[in-house]
Design a protein that fits this description.
- By secondary structure, the protein is mainly alpha-helical.
- It contains 4 helices and no strands.
- 63% of the residues lie in helices and 0% in strands.
- The model has no long low-confidence stretch (mean pLDDT 91).
- The structure holds protoporphyrin IX containing FE (HEM).
């Protein structure tokens, strides 16, 4: 068989499956938390009929926080790929990182 091994840890060329999974699960959770955000006035957001939506929203948000802490811990154990970005992609990456 001619398949490349799937590395759970990052290598010099690319991030490993653990970092990639944390990244995409976090992104999905943020979008879901946003979608379940109990918008509107305070009265409407804290209405008993919206308790379930608010609970889902808070759980998603707390999960993002926990995953972020896991990501920080994993980053300390994992190796970091060497970035070869140039041109507009490098500029975009810097701007987005700065905004974050
Ligand atoms: C990635 C994380 C999160 C995102 C993207 C997010 C997003 C939002 C959005 C879009 C709203 C509606 C705001 C409005 O229209 O006024 C909202 C409201 C709210 N969120 Fe979050 N949220 C996050 C995490 C959390 C967490 C961790 C908690 C609490 C444990 C929380 C509790 C609330 C509450 C209680 C409201 C109701 C409105 C208020 O009190 O201002 N959120 N959130």
């Amino acid at each position: 068989m001619n398949s490349s091994p799937v590395a759970s840890a990052s290598g010099p060329e690319r991030y490993g499956t653990v970092t990639q999974s944390i990244h995409w699960v976090t992104a999905l959770l943020v979008v879901a938390a946003f979608a379940y955000g109990p918008g509107g006035s305070e009265r409407s957001a804290y209405r008993p009929s919206r308790d379930a939506q608010r609970l889902i929203h808070e759980t998603l948000g707390m999960s993002v926080l926990i995953l972020t802490l896991v990501r920080f811990a994993w980053t300390r154990l994992d190796t970091q790929p060497i970035h070869h970005l140039t041109g507009p992609l490098a500029t975009t990456a810097k701007v987005v990182q700065w905004l974050l």
